[in-house]
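Entry 14. Structure prediction run on the chain below.
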Amino acid sequence: MSTINEIRHRIQSVRDTRKITNAMYLIASTKVRKARADLERTRPYFTALKTEIDRMFAVTDEDTQSLYFGDGHEDEGTRGLFVITADKGLAGAYNQNVLKKAQELYNEHRDAKLYVVGEYGRQFFVHHGITVEPGFDYTAQDPTLHRAREICELMIELYKTRKLSRVDLVYTDFRGGVEVVSTAKLLPLDREKFIKKHEGENLSYEYEQPVAEILARAMHSFVAGFVYSALVDSYCSEQNARMVAMSGADKNAEEILSDLSLEFNRLRQAAITQEITEISSGAKSMRNNGAKS
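Output returned:
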């Protein structure tokens, strides 16, 4: 049975831990708001870019085929798996859900090359004896468009040189405040997703430079935006999962404190009762001794 002092120390320990979880909850909520605001400020640009790509397909009779849309043989070569995890834990099942999906894809394509963002994911694959491509040591914290462009440059270069025939992206999409593990084909892109029906529309646009050159630059920026969106969505999902985990930890701390307080009061009351009993017994013994003398 625990003593009063032991329970007192446990209560203080739980209270100290609760202060930490509360602080982590507040920090995570601030990071979520900031990251979502950054993404919303850049979204109009990439939306307009997608519209312009569609316009290029609609108004030109030239061959606008691009390496970004592949040649139909992307499943024949080496596949790249681009996985986004967190740098640390304490975020519920966020990392485990992403890694479970990534491992499923890897089991289907054992010759795939892994490119992992986030130290948690890198350590997971290394621990399981799965090779992670070296030099791809990007952090998952505070995603920026500059970092997304760097990753985009690397992926496109590997794709252009045929070292990778296809790149699949595994990340966590932050949809309406809910984390959903998603997979997307980063390269090559599906041409159909950029083509809309323009029946009855009078489209009249002229491009001074060859459409293929403009399309190549536009698609490069679009892929960078795709990567940036995935990084931010994953980061928001991580922080939201951490908020939920810290909120659950706070509720558990409340229950533990309630149980410990009840146990502490019970032991203290028992100690007080024992002291009163001992005093009463001592006083009675003294009265009896005085009567005999």
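The helical segments are 4-59, 94-108, 119-127, 145-160, 211-292.
Filed with the rest of this week's runs.
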